[in-house]
Write the C-alpha cells for this entry.
Amino acid sequence: MIPIARPLIGSEEEAAVLRVLASGQLAQGEEVVAFERQFAEMCGAREAVAVSSGTAALHLALLAHGVGPGDEVITTAFSFAATANVILLVGATPVFVDIEPDTYNINPALVEAAITPRTKIIMPVHLYGNPADMQRLEEIAAAHGVSIIEDAAQAHGAKIGDKTVGGSNTSCFSFYPTKNMTTGEGGIITTNHPNIAEQARLWRNHGQPTRYYQTALGFNQRMTNLQAAIGNAQLKKLEQFNEQRIANARFLTEHIKDFVQTPVARPGYRHIYHQYTIRVLENRDQWVTTLHERGVGTGVHYPLAIYQQPFYQNSRSRFRISAPDGAVNLPETEAAAKQVLSLPVHPALSQEDLATIVKEVVALCN
Ligand SMILES: *Cc1c(COP(=O)(O)O)cnc(C)c1O
C-alpha cells in the first residue's frame, strides 16, 4: 500500500534526540530557543513561540490577541475541526463563510458581509498548503480594523510572491507527523508583534515570566527540547521536502489533469502540497475503496463541514453561518466535503509509486 502520508525521519533526527537525552535538559530549553529563532527566520517573522501542538498555537494566538466572550472570529468550515474548536474554547463565536470552489480556501468576496461590530479576527486557513488570498483579506481587515490570525498548520514554506507564510500576520503552524515537517507533536506561533509573543509565552507557561512568579493565568503548553531537536533537524530539510512535494504534484497533474479536477494554485502562489487533492464529482466512496484495493492510500480532507459535525449540530447557538440571502448552509463547502479526495504526494514516494497512482486514477476515469 502506498501510504497517504509518511514522516521522513533520518539519522540527523535520531542523533539530535540522543544528544538531548544525554544532556538531561529534556523540557523547554536551548533547543526550543534555537528552533524558535530558526523558524522565525524561515518565515521572515520577528518572533516565534514554540508550543505543544498546532491546536495550542491557535488557542494561545487567540488568547494573546485578547479574543474572548462576545467576540466573533470569521473563518472557514472546510478545515480540520481544531480551527473552530479553539474559537469556542476562548468563549468566542465562530462565523463560517463559504470557500472558493477551485482553491477550497475562504472566499474573500464573502468575508466583508460577515463582519459585524463584534468581529475581532479573520482566521483564514491555507488549506492543503495553498495560501489563501491574503491580499484581499488584508485589505478587508484593514478597512474594518480587525486582525488576522492565519491557520498555517499545513503551510510551512508556502509563499505568495516572495512573502513566506508566517511573516506578516500572527500565524500558527503544526508539527504533527503528517505535516510537511514534524516534531512528533508540536506547534509554533509566528508574529511581528513583541507584545503578542510575550502574551503567548505567558499563556504557554502558567502566566509566569520567571520561575515561581505569576502575573497572569496560563497553561502548560510548552514544547520540549526533544521535540525542538527533531524540529531543528527537520527544518533543515523542509525546503528539500517541499520541492519534492511540488515535483510530485507537477507529475501527477501532468498525467491526470485531462481526467479529473486537479489542484489550483494562483499565479505567483507557492503551493507546498501538504495534500494533493482532486475533486471527484460522483461516487467518491467507490474511488476510495477501489484505490485502496489497488494499493493506493487516499485521504478525505474533510468529509464534513465543521458545522456538520454532531457536536456543532448540537451546539447551534454557539456559531453563526454567514451566507448570501441568509441561507443556513454553505453550498461550496458542503459540495467539497462530498467530492474531495487526497492522493499521496509526500516526499517518500518513488517514481514507481507515482506511476502507480497515475495508472490507477486514469483507470478509474475510463
Ligand atoms: C493539523 C491542523 C491543526 C491542528 O494541529 P495539531 O498539531 O494536530 O494540534 C489545525 N488546523 C489545521 C488546518 C490542521 O491541518
